Amino acid sequence: MRIMYKEIVTRRKTPFMASMLLGLVIMIVISNILEQIKISNYQIGFITNPVLFVITSIVITLELIKCKVKYKYSIISNQLIIHRLKNNNQSVVENVKIEDIVFIGKTKDIKGCINKNIKRAVSSISSKRYVCSMSMFNQYCCIYKYGNQYKRFYFQPSMEFLKKIKVS
Predict the structure, then answer these.
(1) Where are the transmembrane segments (predicted)?
(2) pLDDT tens by residue, 112-123
(3) Residues 34, 56 within the same domain
């Protein structure tokens, strides 16, 4: 049975803006506190203010770059394909045969669903994240066999997407 399904996951702007505003307020408060500190008649704020500005600018820039990245999860026939979409560029980051998938589910469910040999092999590998949310609650883990080894990645599929994977 051939199945085709796709969905695109993007980062929501509102939580990003709220966290950036909170971060800026915290940095301003820290900056004001540090300006009041004197070490042998030398105000420490003279050095810390530019450092805090640079750190804040770097964090905001990195978060803005993350906001431009989207992920497209596709099921085509018996393949699970994940594309990274950035601006007008599209690149395949994962291409997994559905029959090679050993586990797909919430991270907390891994311990009870896979055997000890797989668990040992999976704990030693690094994982990739194809998510657009800062929250860990709606992330799913996919563990699949790749040759003699196992690989793992995290992603944010919808319930409909998970049903399609389980059906095929």
Answers:
(1) 16-34, 46-65
(2) 666 666 666 666
(3) yes
